[in-house]
Amino acid sequence: MKAKRMSFGAAGALFALLSLLLFVAACNGDDGDADPTATEPAVADPIATEPAASETTIDVSLSEFVIDPSIDTAQAGTITFNVSSDGAIFHNFKVVATDLAPDALPVDEALFAADEEQVDVVASTADLDPGEQETLTVELAAGSYVLICNIPTHYQAGMTVAFTVE
């Protein structure tokens, strides 16, 4: 069987093509001698262009008949409430999104509590026995909120406080 040989003209063309490809590849490398007047397309820096996510932790003490957050204003974003029932009776903790004053939420007179069907409760703990703690993490947008305990009679007894997210 005879092997086919490539003609000199075809071999020369192949050599020229490979040389051209190598030349183009070499020209695309960064040799530090770039044209200072040339501009590169802008590339967004994700760290510089995206706003930093805010994370805030707030300790909240519940007792008769007070809600005592460690701060009453936070930045919008992830907010973690470390809630402790520090009183002698059980309490709960609810975050209500509202523009109403803390003592102006609608009340269900039959339940002796804020009417949760008429307000926007965005986060809530379980009922906490004395000495119990619960961590509640929630994403809050900028706005006005009211923090309440909604055990019957507790809201009306003053377990409410304004909370602002900026």
Oligomer: single chain
Provide the structure class: alpha+beta
CATH architecture annotation name of the domain at 53-165 = Sandwich
**Count of helical regions:** 2
Distance between the termini: 85 Å
Summarize the amount of helix as a percent range.
10-25%
CATH class of the domain at 53-165: Mainly Beta
From the 3D structure, determine the CATH topology of the domain at 53-165. Answer: Immunoglobulin-like
Total strands? 11
Average pLDDT number: 82
Overall form: globular
Key features?
5-stranded mixed β-sheet, Immunoglobulin-like, 166 residues, 4-stranded mixed β-sheet, 14% helix, alpha+beta, 34% strand
Can you walk me through this structure?
This protein has two helices and eleven strands, in the order ααβββββββββββ. It has helices at residues 8-27, 46-49; strands spanning 55-63, 66-69, 73-74, 77-85, 94-97, 107-108, 113-114, 120-124, 133-140, 143-148, 160-165. The chain starts with 7 loop residues before the first helix and ends with a strand. The chain has a domain at 53-165: Immunoglobulin-like (Sandwich). The protein has a five-stranded mixed sheet, with no helix packed on it. Strands 2-1-4-9 form a four-stranded mixed sheet, with no helix packed on it. By secondary structure, the protein is of the alpha+beta class. The longest helix is centred in the first third of the chain and has 20 residues, at 8-27. Mean pLDDT is 82; it is low at 36-50. It is globular.
Task: Please render the helix and strand layout as text.
Elements: H1 8-27, H2 46-49, E1 55-63, E2 66-69, E3 73-74, E4 77-85, E5 94-97, E6 107-108, E7 113-114, E8 120-124, E9 133-140, E10 143-148, E11 160-165
Parallel strand pairs: 1-4, 3-11
Antiparallel strand pairs: 1-2, 4-9, 5-8, 5-10, 6-7, 10-11
